[in-house]
Amino acid sequence: MHYTFSPRGVCSTKIDFDIEDNVVSNVKFTGGCNGNLKAIGLLVEGKDASEIADLLEGNDCNGRGTSCADQFSKALKQALSQS
Distance between CA 64 and CA 50 in Å, rounded? Predict the structure, then answer.
């Protein structure tokens, strides 16, 4: 299933991703640090959504209390709770 998430408190404005049988694919961030966010997408491709969410949760960017990775964790948890 495809999901779109609107992150808060970070530079990226949208996170799109798919989850099928708890496996994450096709992660795309709109805005933010292009190279780093593409790398996150590559690193999580084909991995377990719950594990990714736990791993990225709480990551902080410059004292904001969140980050694009943390927001992706929130997006994954929200998506998993809907399935």
Answer: 24
Question: Helices marked H in the chain — which ranges?
Answer: 34-44, 49-56, 68-82
Closest CA to 17 of 83, 79, 70: 79
Q: What is the CATH number of domain 2-82?
A: 3.90.1010
4-18 residue pLDDT tens: 999 999 999 999 999
Task: Give me the amino acid identity at 66.
Answer: T
Structure tokens given for 23 = 């496996």
> Largest Cα–Cα distance in the chain?
35
Q: Where are the domains of the chain?
A: 2-82
pTM given for the model = 0.96
Token reading at 26: 């096709």
Nearest alpha carbon to residue 44 among 11, 68, 8, 78: 68
